Amino acid sequence: MLESGSVMIIGSHVSFSQEQLLGSVKEALSYGANTFMFYTGAPQNTKRQNINQEYLKQAWELMQKNNIDIAHVICHAPYIINLANNLDPEKWQFSINFLKNEINRCEQMQIKYMVLHPGSHVSLTKEEGLNNIVQALNFIIRDDDKCMILLETMAGKGSECGANLDEIAYILNGVKSKNIGVCLDTCHLNDAGYDMSDFDKFLNLFDEKIGLEKIKCIHINDSKNVINSHKDRHENIGFGTIGFPNLVNIVHHPKLKDVPKILETPYIGEDDTDKNCIYPPYKFEIEMLQNKSFSKDLLTKIRLYYK
Ligand code: FE
Ligand code: FE
Ligand code: ZN
User: Fold this and answer.
1) Ligand lying closest to the C-alpha of residue 156
2) CA-based nearest residue to 55, from 99, 22, 24
3) DSSP the chain
4) Ligand 1 mean position to 3 CA, how many Å?
5) Ligand nearest to the CA of 39
6) What is the distance in A from the centroid of ligand 3 to the CA of 1?
7) Which of 33, 106, 144, 269 could form a disulfide with 111 if both were Cys (CB 3.0 to 4.6 A apart)?
8) How far is the CA of 88 from the centre of ligand 1 (A)?
9) What's the CA gap between 135 and 190, in Å, rounded?
10) In tens digits, what is the pLDDT along the chain, a chain of 307 residues?
């Protein structure tokens, strides 16, 4: 039998709409995952349903039965929340209140981590944007919050803050509470200019500037674009510019052994014209990464499985 410490913690983004967390757990299990990430509502809006206690109880039971440790489950804040720009003070305050609320919802569900895009400074300067993020997080984060915010490393699309380790470090240093961590995203890192084929070099740099213990989650995505393109378009595992061997190296890296890995790769289309992207690739991508063996026929296999 495998030691529990040697099992890779891997899952994907899943839906929260059917039966809330219970639906998320069922979907994760259908992919053979032992963790997952969800949004507590549509990522592009801030409408939220109340937590259904009956579904929640069943979700916890189902996780326990299937050895999904809730400490590895990740929530993602909606990406319309922007802490970096406060030109409309009411909107900024709304973002702050909304995030506080999301943390409460996560605590109700016993979810320990919430990934957050730091924000886009838009018409402000980068420095103003970063300072707004720090100020907002100082309003939001408390030492005794049971759900920790994780800043996601961004691709640097448009005016995104947090596309390099210095900016992430600047925010972390400005936040008074130590109750904050980081979520890496391999596609974003590649697009931001970090070479994923020399991951040890990246980890050393991260350790120097921030500290490896701050990494609480890693999004595993291939990229449609070349290094330093600042684009942020995810590609299926092994089909992008990062490539299968580099992604295998990252998910099996001994220094990230206990860090949950979450796939956010695109759904597969009905045929090669790529229309109707309705088939989730995660069951097959998880298998490939666990077995360290790439399947060129991935897309065909997925279509056959779900048809
Ligand atoms: Fe994200
Ligand atoms: Fe991501
Ligand atoms: Zn992305």
Assistant:
1) 3
2) 22
3) ---GGGS--EEEE---SSSTHHHHHHHHHHTT-SEEEE-SS-TT----PPP-HHHHHHHHHHHHHTT--GGG-EEE--TT--SS--SSHHHHHHHHHHHHHHHHHHHHHT--EEEE---B-TTS-HHHHHHHHHHHHHHH--TT-SSEEEEEP----TTBS-SSHHHHHHHHHH-S-S-EEEEEEHHHHHHHT--GGGHHHHHHHHHHHT-GGGEEEEEE-EESS-TT-----EE-TTSSSS-HHHHHHHHT-GGGTTS-EEE-PPPBPSSTT--S--B--HHHHHHHHHHT---TTHHHHHHHHH-
4) 31
5) 1
6) 36
7) 106
8) 24
9) 29
10) 455 457 999 999 999 988 999 999 999 999 999 999 999 888 788 888 899 999 999 999 999 999 999 999 999 999 889 999 999 999 999 999 999 999 999 999 999 999 999 999 999 999 999 999 999 999 999 999 999 999 999 999 999 999 999 999 999 999 999 999 999 999 999 999 999 999 999 999 999 999 999 999 999 999 999 999 999 999 999 999 999 999 999 999 999 999 999 999 999 998 877 778 899 999 999 999 999 999 999 999 999 999 8
Domains assigned to the chain = 10-306 (3.20.20.150)
Residue 117 alpha carbon to ligand 1 centre in Å: 6
Ligand 3 centroid, distance to 231 Cα (angstroms):
9
